[in-house]
From TrEMBL:
This is Uncharacterized protein. It comes from Elasticomyces elasticus. It comes from the Eukaryota. Residues 52-73, 321-351 are annotated as: Disordered.
Length: 381
């Protein structure tokens, strides 16, 4: 069976077992990503007026229970929301875990945070509309360090106000119409014409590298305000850097992205993926920490394109599992790899890196969570 939220039967999108499609649909309902609206929301009805003619009776603009709006009358009763309260809560929680992990590595105490990351005045000055970004940035605490990831700075008010992809005269046409927002800025610049979605949002020839929240178009059939892109100032072109479908990273903004997504080809990775991966990099000791936070600078991202480290940056699709749950499966997969691919210590090291990610993939496939991902042999560029 084919399921595509954009209602386009793209032959390049893989077909799925019905049980997988239903599982995804149920999860979207449970997370309130899709909402069944009452008939009167976002619609207009008519009644006979006393003096003749028709009386127009507009329904409520949004669902009083969930706040969801009707986006397409042909999809009744369903509508898709650009972000959910659960998306926000999980992102805030992951931010707290990441910040705490870095500060513990720095030897700082557990003092409660004194300030929020950005105040309302700063967000207003940066023209950040109401939505996921504004709520997230006003809720999370300000860390006591400078770098949240290699070469990427925690935003200060002065930095954040200068948004490279928000024009000074930009005006929001709809509450789901949100521009691309630079969250974590790097010092290097990228040519705007190298990335189509960047070029479409700025007249400047260059823009800063870093983590951007993706623009959300009100007319997109699957709006997503918590999507993100990491734009690097260099190419990862050795063939080792992988997306979630094990496709090779080809563009400066491909790292952490899902690749072929059988349910929506234009679905960006969620900000949670970046926060969670950064947390794991710190917890597992892959990233070092110094007095300014995460050390290594922008050049450290090149290790995502190496035989030894690529799997540390390949974000899995679907629910994550604890290390305790995965340990036995990882060891079992490593043993199977060693049996199939005997060789040098370097080769065995590569198997260990691949084994961690692949064991999780196999476990999820066994539960039909991401059974569109096929088992693979160790990729070789």
């Amino acid at each position: 069976m084919h399921f595509d939220i954009t209602d386009e039967l793209d032959p390049e999108q893989p077909w799925q077992p019905l049980e997988s499609i239903l599982t995804v649909w149920i999860e979207m309902i449970q997370r309130c990503k899709v909402v069944a609206l009452p008939d009167d929301v976002g619609t207009t009805t008519y009644a006979n007026a006393e003096g003749g003619g028709l009386l127009e009776i507009p329904g409520p603009p949004q669902d009083p229970r969930t706040g969801a709006k009707r986006r397409d009358s042909q999809m009744k009763p369903w509508t898709i929301v650009p972000w959910t309260p659960k998306d926000l809560e999980e992102s805030v929680e992951l931010w707290g875990m990441l910040v705490k992990s870095i500060e513990q590595k720095m030897g700082l105490d557990d003092s409660p945070p004194a300030d929020q990351l950005l105040d309302a005045q700063t967000l207003d000055s940066a023209l950040i509309p109401d939505g996921f970004a504004r709520k997230f940035l006003s809720r999370v605490p300000r860390p006591r360090f400078k770098y949240i990831a290699p070469g990427l700075r925690v935003p200060t008010a002065e930095d954040f106000i200068v948004q490279p992809l928000i024009e000074a005269n930009w005006q929001q046409q709809d509450e789901d119409d949100v521009p691309a927002i630079l969250l974590f800025r790097g010092d290097a610049l990228v040519d705007a014409d190298e990335l189509t979605w960047i070029q479409a949002n700025t007249t400047a020839p260059k823009c800063p590298c870093g983590v951007y929240l993706s623009p959300c178009d009100q007319y997109n059939p699957y709006p997503q305000q918590d999507g993100f892109a990491l734009i690097l100032p260099f190419d990862l072109d050795s063939g080792w850097a992988k997306k979630s479908d094990y496709g090779v990273v080809q563009a400066k903004d491909d790292l952490y992205q899902s690749g072929v997504n059988p349910y929506n080809p234009r679905h960006p990775a969620q900000l949670q993926a970046f926060l969670e991966n950064s947390y794991l990099q710190i917890q597992d000791g892959h990233w070092d920490v110094d007095g300014d936070g995460v050390a290594g600078g922008l050049d450290l991202w090149n290790e995502a394109d190496t035989a030894e480290k690529w799997s540390n940056y390949a974000v899995q699709v679907g629910p994550t599992r604890s290390r305790a749950d995965d340990k036995a499966e990882e060891e079992g997969f490593e043993n199977r790899c060693a049996a199939r691919h005997p060789g040098s210590p370097q080769s065995r090291g590569r198997m260990r890196n691949v084994g961690n990610l692949q064991a999780r993939m196999e476990a999820m496939m066994s539960r039909h969570e991401v059974d569109w991902i096929q088992p693979f042999e160790v990729p070789r560029p």
